[in-house]
Amino acid sequence: MSELRFPENFVWGAATAAYQIEGAARDDGRGPSIWDTFSRTPGKVFAGHTGDVACDHYHRYADDVALMAELGLKAYRFSVAWPRIQPDGTGPVNPRGLDFYDRLTDALLDRGIDPIVTLYHWDLPQSLEDRGGWANRETAEHFATYAAAVHGRLGDRVRTWTTLNEPWCSAYLGYGNGVHAPGVRDAGVAFAAVHHLLLGHGLAARALRAAGAEVVGITLNVADVRPADPDSAADAAAVRLVDGLQNRIFLDPLTGAGYPADVLEHVSRMVEPTFIRDGDEKLIAAPIDLLGVNYYAPTYVAGRPDGAGDEAYPGTERAVEFLPATGPLTEMGWMIEPAGLTRLLERLAADHPGLPLMITENGGAFPDQGGEAGPGEAGRVADADRIAYLDGHLRAAHEAIGRGVDLRGYLVWSLLDNFEWAEGYRKRFGIVHVDYLTQRRTPKASAGWYQGVISRNGL
């Protein structure tokens, strides 16, 4: 294939999340999160795994930053653990919690790595969940207070701020089908959580802007939803329903269009949306400078009156059949279809012109192949499948740029193997292998490959 070059100043980096890598679950005044509780609930997480130790990044961050520098990363997206900053979710700020992120930020900047802060990556303080969690409007207000506290410590050095990571997961997987913390299964509660997450984003975005934040954004796991049969009207209706629940319920209010009428009608069949108050949509539409896009796989659906639906998409039963993934799959069972990324980026650019995009997560879980990689990769763990996955998706991103999409950067998921939520430690997304017993880090062949991509600014 011919060489491909990305735009000048394209941002190359990696991403992680606090609960997945930090460990130190009880250190320095950190309070419990919903994931501490959930992972200790029998049957919720594979083999009873928890994030108590994870990758011990809390104590090993300096070595991890040195590794990032060795790989040539230009940016590092990390999340702040709300329970470290406010152990109960409200009240006095814990200075020792902020001290850690202060040290991490300085270490990154000393190595020429731009810190990108995500304020919420699913680890809600348990005490807030005890008061209703994201189904409680007050949580949105507390989130804005927390956001201002973090900016107060890091805002003089951090340029880019992301409020929420994948509110679809927080709402639908946490409160809809219950496969993620806090493990609630209630469609009405899930929709209330959607709204309060968006409200929390809007309130936090305003607080950040008022404090002088330069770049404010949000990260969504928007989906490329496709019909089983492009010529089927029933399948087209299924696409619109799923697209409404996955994409438009977030994108439209965030960009000032308000909630889509068809989505509100669908929600009203399950719960009266009294949680939406006058003025809320204006608050949610606080201007953003960047939309983070997390992409892993497309979603194929068919419209069927006997469709099983999915609790993660409330109200799709007896209307939608979610097709099983086919073709090459990741170890998560997710379809590998890079063209879906191109389509998704083009759709976002067309629907929301003028809104810069960044791929804030993309990667694949694959079993490490054992032994060392090929010539020139001595000591590296072989993972050819991951290289092929990343290469295909970067080519898809480059294709979108060539078609006029304003794509500013790419952050691989993930820097390190880590605690993969309900899957525990059995699925590995990292470009760096982690031995969870010794905490030894070993770059995989994909890390060396990515290092080359960064140095060439292309493929």
From TrEMBL:
Protein's organism: Micromonospora rubida
Catalytic function, reaction form: Hydrolysis of terminal, non-reducing beta-D-glucosyl residues with release of beta-D-glucose
The protein, known as: Beta-glucosidase
Domain of life: Bacteria
Pfam families (UniProt xref): Glyco_hydro_1 (PF00232)
EC number, UniProt record: 3.2.1.21
Keywords assigned: Carbohydrate metabolism, Cellulose degradation, Glycosidase, Hydrolase, Polysaccharide degradation
Family label: Belongs to the glycosyl hydrolase 1 family.
GO molecular function: beta-glucosidase activity
Enzyme class, first EC level, given as a word: hydrolase
